[in-house]
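Hi support team,

I submitted a single chain yesterday and got back a structure, but I'm not sure I'm reading the token output correctly. Could someone confirm the output below corresponds to the sequence I sent? I've pasted both exactly as they appear in my results page.

Thanks,
R.
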Amino acid sequence: MTAGTDTTNSVTTVYKVTGMSCGHCEGSVSGEISEIPGVSSVKAVASTGEVTVVSAAPLDERAVRAAVDEAGFELVTNA
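Hi R., thanks for writing in. Yes, this is the structure output for that exact sequence:
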């Protein structure tokens, strides 16, 4: 996981997720994570396993892990 901030006071974090193989997988992961309060955008890329999340504040990793689990995939610690 990597995180940074930009000039709009939002936080961008890149997570590593295993098991995604197609656009449907990307949509499932993006949909679950986007329901976490404070998330403004999510972009999942199956080919790299990276999920980029923009949020108002740093997210609780447990919430992200639960969302990824709900989608049927696994969040890897330390992307």
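A quick pointer for reading it: The longest strand covers residues 11-18. Let us know if anything else looks off.

Best,
Support desk
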